[in-house]
Amino acid sequence: MANPLQLVTGALATVDDPMLQRPLVDLGYLDPPDLRAGVLSLRVRLGYPAASLAAEVIDSLTQAVHGLPGVDRVAVDFGWRIMPHGGPQNGQPLRGVKNLIAVASGKGGVGKSTTAVNLALALQAEGARVGVLDADVYGPSQALMLGIAEGTRPEVAEQRFFLPVRAHGLQAMSMALLVTDKTPMVWRGPMASGALQQLLNQTLWDGLDYLVVDMPPGTGDIQLTLAQQAPVTGAVIVTTPQDIATQDARKGIEMFRKVDIPILGVVENMAVHHCSNCGHEEHLFGAGGGERVATEYATVVLGALPLDARIREQTDAGHPPLVVDPEGDLSQAYRRAAVRAAARIEGLRERSAAQFPTIAVSDD
């Protein structure tokens, strides 16, 4: 008859990671169990920030061993360990950055910058160290959305590096911190690309798990510069459900595919409107557009956000939903999208490791 520890080990092997849908043991997330005097001690470390999944994972592990002989109590040490995934080997790794997420859209007006800042705050709420780089050099908006006071300038280190500005716990850098809010960027493409390279290479990020890059809309010089000059881990595509927006979203996806940058998923903004008076739901911009794009390109919908005045009002005021109401429905929607994106990055790393050939050394 199997001893209690063997029974425990077998039972734990059936518990899957809730996002990657593979056994925690196979992913290397669960340490060997320790069973002493009726107390089963488990240590689990997911590969992505997942504070909101703690209760679910702990309950799954506890239920798996419930009633097994020798197990009177279960103690779970839950956490995460975020590893770098450099993506395509373009450019040099950014100092102090493990993973770089580009947030992009095929056209303007779909809520890309709003999504970028809220995803960054959501990743932070889930337990990661996060920064935001405003790469929209023509129309930088992250300083406003993060509530950074007008006139704030980054400190300079070693006479050539910028120190990111801190806002709501995030590290932030933007062209808006180097010019006034009334200064138009009347630049040709090479000048804008040069400005982005300066922001990328001369900012001293401090131990970031994720750097969220708010891209300008479209598929122009800035996007190509980022793809060629930095190791982008993956891209998040933002769209609304309407056909004209999803058509442009497809162009954005095609551009990232051409430069071998993985698509982490699609965020669909303005998916549905809930009437604040009667509660009636209405799809003002159509329905299912994000899902159709995701299916066409074999990716996923990370999240569908409603057409809600609170998102605009709070973000425009410099206090996005994650700051104003961390436990509210909008914050939870962004956190679910952030966890899915982070898990997709970990899935990329796992697939890369699985595809890497095994090297054997023999004496022959």
Describe it for me?
By secondary structure, the chain is α/β, with parallel strands linked by helices. The chain has helices spanning 4-12, 24-27, 54-64, 112-125, 142-145, 189-201, 221-229, 243-258, 289-296, 309-316, 321-324, 329-355; strands at 34-36, 39-46, 73-80, 97-104, 130-134, 156-157, 161-162, 165-167, 170-174, 208-214, 234-239, 263-268, 273-274, 281-282, 301-304. A hairpin with a 3-residue loop joins strand 6 (156-157) and strand 7 (161-162). The strands form four sheets. It has an eight-stranded mixed β-sheet, with helices on both faces. It has a three-stranded mixed β-sheet with strand order 1-2-3, with helices on one face. Strands 6-7 form a two-stranded antiparallel sheet. 35% of the residues lie in helices and 20% in strands. It has twelve helices and 15 strands.
Which range does the strand content fall in? 15-25%
CATH topology of the largest domain: Rossmann fold
First and last CA, distance: 44 Å
Sheet with the most strands?
8 strands, mixed
- Mean model confidence by pLDDT: 86
Spatial arrangement of strands, main beta sheet: 8-9-5-10-4-11-12-15
> Helices and strands: which structural class?
alpha/beta
Architecture of the largest domain, CATH level 2? 3-Layer(aba) Sandwich
Number of alpha- plus pi-helical segments: 12
The CATH superfamily of the largest domain turns out to be P-loop containing nucleotide triphosphate hydrolases
Residue windows where pLDDT falls under 50 for at least 5 positions: 358-362
Q: Into how many domains do the coordinates divide? A: 2
- Please give the CATH class of the largest domain: Alpha Beta
| Approximate helicity band | 25-40%
**Taking Cα atoms only, what radius of gyration do you get, to the nearest Å?**
22 Å
